[in-house]
Amino acid sequence: MTVVHTLANGVRIVADPVPGFQTLALSVAAGRGSRAEDPARSGWSHLLEHMVFKGAGGRSARDIVEVIEARGGGINAATGYERTSFQVRSLAGNLQLALEVVADLVLRPTLDAGDLVREVGVIAQEIAEAADTPDDFVFEMAQAAAFADQPLGRPVLGTEAAIGAATPDTLETWRARLYAPDRLVVCAAGAIDESELVDVATRLFAEAVPSGDTAPAPAAFVGGAAHEARKLEQAHLVFFLPGVSATDPDYFASRLFAEVLGGGMSSRLFQEARERLGLAYAIDAFAESYQDTGLIGVYAGCAAKDASALAEVVADQLRGVADKVTLAELDRAKAQLKASLFMARESLAARAEQAAAQLLVFDRLLSPEEVAAAVDAVTIADVQQLGARLLSPKLAAPAVLGPSRALGAADTFQRALFG
Questions:
Q1: Domain that holds residue 384
Q2: Is the CB of residue 177 less than 8 Å from the CB of residue 117?
Q3: What is the per-residue pLDDT across 86-140, written as a single tens digit (0 to 9) for each?
Q4: Count of structural domains, the chain
Q5: Of 142, 174, 205, which residue sits at a domain end?
Q6: Which of 9, 21, 290, 370 is most buried when burial is the number of CB atoms within 10 A of its CB?
Q7: Do 234 and 194 lie in a common domain?
Q8: Do residues 381 and 243 both lie within one domain?
Q9: What is the maximal distance between C-alpha atoms in the chain?
Q10: 172 in any annotated domain
Q11: Active site (annotated) includes residue 207
């Protein structure tokens, strides 16, 4: 049985013992990420995540990884728009060590000036690598168009100029804000003891001081086309429409809409664009939800000569799903969505991350039975209502990256979808 404990400073502790496992997974998640940044601090959250691994709690960068790996474990971290998380996977019996190491990373990093200079250089290379990866960079283009001049429109990696302006002192101030206890969740799953988890986590995290930080400003999907010519063999296309937030009543309808549209090989986009017309070598659709907004997206890779024709097909299939979904399609989408959600729970790391995310978004845990019931409750009418919501603002954010002859696909998509 999963149990939640809350400390006086707001830290929440989640114990999820799973019988039969000889391993454990720990996730310490902060409900803040790059969305908390202004332009001058763009990329600081990701930079901080890197920097804490350079030394913390008296351990060197090498010590941090060696002490975990010596016990058969692994340690990692990730920064997103609305969450930063630290994960440890280990053999049973190492919960205290895992907690101590991650608590040091989150609360007691060294933040050495020399390390900072070197790490800024490393991340500058990461920024350049992302720009050189077309099927990554095209998403940044679409995101920037969808949420122009907003934190959600800036890349998580930030800019070299902004991260280069950080100092150890300013980064420590940012750490106290980003990893403040009022938005911190400590979750462990697998071969764990609840009492040990609560006792150790209380000792390590109870003294952390809340920041009083406010919620980010509301985001607005503003839309707009983006295109960039590059000498590539293929064109990369992304199409965004305004979606719904994670707490919106239409959340599961949006997930199912995306599943019917392009969630698998039986989806409309795959069958029409790839199988019947041969216009794309890769195509899929997805739903992304944030605290207060979201998007429905489509990614496609194709020959430059086919880009505009493919854009028309995507627009046509979007309208088609919005107009009519069959019961067979909806049932198949429900089965696929539930399978993806429940298969993830077979991974201890995913269980821990999922529980942390639910507390940060909903302030409570959702049982698998509750999630399944919510998915099953979605009707054809709900999906149609969601489709109308997607199209009614007449906003989109298409992005095209590739040979110049493909760039017109962005405008083609807008015209085909909205007239």
A1: 226-418
A2: no
A3: 999 999 999 999 999 999 999 999 999 999 999 999 999 999 999 999 999 999 9
A4: 2
A5: 205
A6: 290
A7: no
A8: yes
A9: 63
A10: yes
A11: no
In this structure, are 195 and 319 located in the same domain?
Answer: no
Map the chain to HEC letters.
CCEEEECCCCCEEEEEECCCCCEEEEEEEECCCHHHCCHHHCCHHHHHHHHHHHEECCEEHHHHHHHHHCCCCEEEEEECCCCEEEEEEEECCCHHHHHHHHHHHHHCECCCHHHHHHHHHHHHHHHHHHHCCHHHHHHHHHHHHHCCCCHHHCCCCCCHHHHHCCCHHHHHHHHHHHCCHHHEEEEEEECCCHHHHHHHHHHHHCCCCCCCCCCCCCCCCCCCCEEEECCCCCEEEEEEEECCCCCCCCHHHHHHHHHHHHCCCCCHHHHHHHHHCCCCCEEEEEEEECCCCEEEEEEEEECHHHHHHHHHHHHHHHHHHHHCCCHHHHHHHHHHHHHHHHHHCCCHHHHHHHHHHHHHHHCCCCCHHHHHHHHHCCCHHHHHHHHHHHHCCCCCEEEEEECHHHCCHHHHHHHHHHC
- Active-site pick, 37, 49, 82, 272: 49
Is the Cβ–Cβ distance between 138 and 238 less than 8 Å? yes
Residue type at position 287? A
